[in-house]
Amino acid sequence: MDHLSSAPPAAVRLTRYTKTEQAEILGEGADPFGVADAGLTWLPKEEHFGVRLEGRLVAHTGLLRVPVAVGGAEVVGVGGVAVAEDVRGRGLARLVMTAALGYARTMGPRHGLLFCRPPLVPLYRRLGWRVLEQDVRVEQREGPVIMPLRTMWTPLHDGAEWPAGEVRLLSYPM
User: Fold this and answer.
1) pLDDT in tens, 48-63
2) C-alpha–C-alpha distance, residues 24 and 136, integer Å
3) I need a surface site. Which of 23, 125, 135, 143 has the fewest CB within 10 A?
4) So what's the pLDDT on residue 1?
5) The pTM is what?
6) Residue 36 in contact with residue 30, Cβ under 8 Å?
7) Which helix (DSSP H) or strand (DSSP E) does residue 11 occupy?
């Protein structure tokens, strides 16, 4: 057991989230999210939430409102979800995701959307996310491509079901 403060951790909205803060959580690796082999260009998030333990940033979730061509909607894209390896298993992903999604509910769109590596699907399912069992096209410099990662969604409002139809993110993925 380490010597963390006795106050329960809390997720807060961050005023900034740079490569420095990301490295504080994930280290300095070239591919901290393990998605470089997907060969995609990603959008930066605009809203950031984090958890600090004894002053150190140990968890993060980012949000970005993006247009999607399915039901003429926008979604709140969720990404940059990270928990420092040495503090995993303490519910910090749930804590930071809950704070971010609470804010996402005030942004207007009815759905949250994220892309993840297949091994992370069980984690996101435990957090209430649902697998979207169809291909999703995302924009890239050369034109739309099929997202090679798993696509998951969550309702942001009561009664929000995922709309039927082809799904195309009208931007780079987040």
Assistant:
1) 999 999 999 999 999 9
2) 32
3) 143
4) 46
5) 0.91
6) yes
7) strand 11-13
